[in-house]
Design goal:
About 10% of the residues lie in helices and about 15% in strands. It has about 210 residues and is mainly beta.
Length: about 210
Amino acid sequence: SVSSRKFCCDYTMRDGGKFPYGLTWDGSKWISAEGFENHPAVYISWFGADAYCTWAGGSLPTEAQWEYAARGGNSESLPFGIGDGTKMVQGMACFLFSGYYDMANGGYIEDPSLNDIYEPGTKDVGSYVPNGFGLYDMHGNAYEYCLDEYADYPAGPVSDYVCLDGNGRNILRGGGWLNVAPELRSACRFYQKPNVALEHNGFRIVFSAK
């Protein structure tokens, strides 16, 4: 039922309020935490993301739409959709950059010394370079919900595949501020129950072309 659905969570009520990257209730409406007005909205559940997109006249992207957009025109053989697609290092996105990725140097690399300069938390949208489609933060900053639920891909090629089988495992893509580089790959898939609202879960709206 609608009454049993959690749409978002007041950041002050979770984790002792130590992650002020989301929304808070001022007694009459939801507002951004002070100083985070231009950050992605987090502590949002799938139910909340879907409801907001519907209210705004759009929708959540399907998983296929999200991955196409995230690749930014780069080849499907490449892990990332920004730059030349071969690496994800400090300064390219908002992520835990002590665990970075560089195909030219063997792939995944851990450098714990970088934790000394890592500043946890979301960043202003647009703080990093966009991908080839002009889209910002498809990798990192906040996970983004998709319309689909998680399931194995069908055997053989399909176009515009969507999974809506009611299994209650909603897709998240792109990784967030506390993920290492491999979890930001264009093809990397995660899922979450639709009522869960965490400090690194956000969303992106798709609008139909007019």
